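Justification of resources, computational component.

The compute hours requested in this renewal are based largely on the per-chain cost of generating structure records like the one below. Each record pairs the submitted sequence with a full structure-token output. That output is archived, and it is also reused by downstream analysis tasks.
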Amino acid sequence: MTDNRRLVLASQSPARLGLLRAAGFAPEVIVSGVDEDALFAPTPAELAQVLAEAKAASVAERPAAAGALVVGCDSVLDLDGQPLGKPVDAEDATARWKSMRGRAGILRTGHCVIDTASGRRAAATASTTVRFGTPSDAEVAAYVASGEPLHVAGAFTLDGRSAPFVEGIEGDHSNVIGLSLPLFRRLLLELDVPLTDLWV
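The structure output for this chain reads:
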């Protein structure tokens, strides 16, 4: 990886960082600080995209990101057309899980890659259908008590304690974790950056 092909992740998500590292990258992390509650969009997919682009743009403007490729992402669970981000508290997380049991939702993740060297950007949203199982009230209570669902979009994750409560997915697994690696590759190609140039 050359000095002018640094990769910056505009997210504090350990799941996204772990995905990128496992795929051969060594991203720097610069948290955007974007107020997610201040942004709105008419659909869950559009909301995820608006948030991703705001995060990437916020970090790309900073001197610390000069010359780097900045990737911003944001995930929203689309349940019957309603956008579900991180639960506000334990009561909200419990209600979410009771409403999701035995149903399917669509995890929408907005992606935006900005090449700060050229000013070019590429953006798109990935969607993966998630089929939820039927955890009991006791299992839901124990999961919420763990604190995990308070930190993730949709109050669930595939790489944590709620994995046994997800019956299956249709689409990209990495997208549900927080960053679609296949889409990331395609966005880099739009910017004329081969994925392998960023491997370490």
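The chain has a mean pLDDT of 95. The first strand starts at residue 7 and ends at 9.
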